[in-house]
Design a protein that fits this description.
Radius of gyration: 28 Å
Largest sheet: 2 strands, antiparallel
Order of helices and strands: HHHHHHHEEHHHHH
Number of helices: 12
Shape: flat
Strand content: under 5%
Strand order of the largest sheet: 1-2
Number of strands: 2
Length: 308
């Protein structure tokens, strides 16, 4: 099991350089926040469109298939499982569903008197609309459960994959530079912008180290061919606690080594040591991405609103 290849969360793809890599990180942050916020109070058609757009961006950027194929496959499998699970679950309405009008039309004819022409229209409308979409045995799919399943599954895919796509095509230094640039006005209010961006940089650099330590420990357990049946529940729990303790010690050791490396290079405090980040400059392709983002939000306001 190679976590660094099968689960590339938070890892930056250095080669090949796609057009997503070359966009300004501030523009990519604006797109990321648009994906993470535009589904709020939106209809299901817009939520599905966000999923389609993320897949199209991945294909149009020509990101290597080995990078996104397995991860997108697992994520699509997870969202499909969530969709099926919620769609067949109770929709939260503790009522027994029944049609608004009786199924026997003869019951309504005496009460209708001379207005019998209204009854067929009402009956036809009742037959066209059905709250229960599927019912067989204990499995019941209603309009509300299907709507809720679509909402949850699309949000799950959008949040996870959009964030990972941003980290995949943006270097940690570019991310911190963009955040520092956007947070620059907060310095007037004595907000430690440099400290925040430095902490974010170290966190992004630490993610691969965590995956590497987990991978090494999992391989060490597999190579020892432990017989879990003989250990029993108590022995298994004790062994996993030992592994977790070892993982924590290794991570703390890595953090100490990183701190020592910074001190050796003369870094004592962001106020005394100038931190030079990536140089930002908006180009023609960035302005084009901003223009497309404006169209994106225009389409969201026109097409994505919930029906009243």
């Amino acid at each position: 099991m190679d976590l660094l290849r099968s689960l590339p969360l938070g890892l930056y793809l250095e080669q090949p350089q796609t057009w997503l890599h070359k966009l300004d990180p501030r523009v990519k942050i604006a797109w990321l926040m648009s994906f993470l916020t535009s589904y709020s109070f939106a209809n299901n058609q817009w939520r599905i469109l966000l999923v389609v757009l993320l897949i199209l961006f991945t294909l149009m950027a020509r990101i290597p298939q080995r990078v996104w194929k397995e991860q997108m496959g697992w994520l699509l499998t997870l969202t499909l499982f969530v969709f099926l699970l919620i769609s067949i679950s109770p929709d939260g309405l503790g009522v027994q569903y029944q049609p608004r009008l009786p199924t026997n039309l003869q019951v309504l004819i005496p009460a209708a008197n001379s207005n019998t022409d209204i009854v067929p229209a009402a009956t036809g409308a009742t037959q066209d609309y059905s709250y229960i979409l599927f019912h067989k045995g204990p499995v019941t799919v209603t309009r509300r459960s299907l709507d809720l399943a679509t909402r949850v599954s699309t949000i799950l895919f959008t949040v996870i994959y959009s964030s990972n796509l941003y980290l995949l095509t943006t270097a940690p230094e570019e991310i911190t530079t963009a955040i520092a640039s956007l947070m620059r006005p907060l310095r007037r209010f004595q907000v430690p912008v440099t400290e925040i961006t430095l902490t974010l940089t170290l966190s992004l650099r630490f993610i691969p180290l965590v995956l590497e330590e987990v991978q090494n420990l999992s391989r060490s357990v597999m190579t020892r061919a432990i017989n879990w049946k003989k250990l029993g529940l108590k022995g298994s729990v004790k062994l996993w606690l030992i592994i977790a303790e070892r993982l924590l010690k290794n991570l703390l050791l890595r953090a100490e080594q990183m701190a020592n490396a910074m001190m050796v290079r003369g870094f004592t405090s962001p106020n005394e040591h100038e931190v030079k980040w990536h140089e930002l400059r908006l180009q023609a392709k960035d302005w084009l991405a901003i223009a497309i983002l404006t169209v994106f939000w225009g389409a969201r306001l026109v097409l994505g609103n919930l029906p009243i």
